Amino acid sequence: MNYLFLAIKLLRPDSEFGFTEQDYSTIIWTKLEGNPPTQAEVDIAIEQVKAQEIAAAEAAAADKANATAKLEALGLTADDLKALGL
Amino acid sequence: MQATTTTATTIASTTAVDTTITATITPSSATSKVLVFVNMIVNGSSTNGTLQVGSNLVRGATTILSYINAAAGPKVGTMQSLGTTWTNGDLTLPLSMMFLDSPATTSATTYKVQGINTTVGATVSSIYQQNSLASVILLLEIGA
């Protein structure tokens, strides 16, 4: 996951830039409105991105479990859906 | 002269940005030609729109070869010819650039690759040397 990219886009959605590895000090801004985010702001944003990633994975797992439970209530399994090409 | 880089460079810009693909040669004669060959690993990733990735081969500050379609925006010709769409996708490919240059100098001359994207967005980016996959630039002096 390109956390530095996602964090910058979270903080400055309309900005354009490039950087090497995940190194804040290498960021080259080609379009920026306002001041560039600080290292501290970017670090906080990276943690937000990671938290969103975890929440999304947990939500997906919950959705799958919910769907599986509904299938089982109908007497179906995931293999039954595969057999139907779904 | 050959240089290899595994340093990942992320591009999220419609203005060209330097990658770490670069090498320097000092021609022995001003009439020499320099054959430049680049083999690079480029990833394009987008989940909210079409992404076209372009590359420039630059000598000093002069672009000598540009894989950019001015009418439709930057794009890597190889990928376009393959019919590959980067609309809501993620793709990594090896791409090449080759150029026989006439630098007309005996001074140290640096060649580099720049990356550029057609579109920008919250999830639109290109990455050179993704996952530390190596890109190579080879400079070969050819006597006149």
Brief digest:
The complex is a heterodimer of chains A (86) and B (144). Helices cover 58% and strands 10% of the residues of chain A. With 86 residues, chain A is mainly alpha-helical.
Describe the structure.
The complex is a heterodimer of chains A (86) and B (144). By secondary structure, chain A is mainly α. Chain A is 58% helix and 10% strand. Chain A has one domain (3-84). Chain A has helices spanning 3-11, 39-73, 78-83, and strands at 16-20, 28-31. Chain A has a two-stranded antiparallel sheet. In chain A, a hairpin with a 7-residue loop joins strand 1 and strand 2 (28-31). In chain B, the strands form two sheets. In chain B, strands 1, 2, 4, 8, 10 and 11 form a six-stranded antiparallel β-sheet that branches. Mean pLDDT of chain B is 83; it is low at 76-85. The interface between A and B is medium-sized, with 17 and 20 residues. Strand 1 of chain A pairs antiparallel with strand 2 (9-12) of chain B, so a sheet runs across the interface.
Number of helical segments of chain A?
3
- Helicity range of the residues of chain A? 55-70%
User: Residue ranges of chain B: pLDDT <50 for 5 or more in a row?
Assistant: 76-85
Q: Secondary-structure element sequence of chain A?
A: HEEHH
Task: Find the structural class of chain A using helix and strand composition.
Answer: mainly alpha
Tell me the quaternary state. Answer: heterodimer
Shape of chain A: elongated
Spatial shape of chain B: elongated
Strand content of chain B: over 45%
Describe this protein with a few key phrases.
heterodimer; A: 86 residues; mainly alpha; 2 strands; B: 144 residues; mainly beta; 1 helix; 11 strands; 56% strand
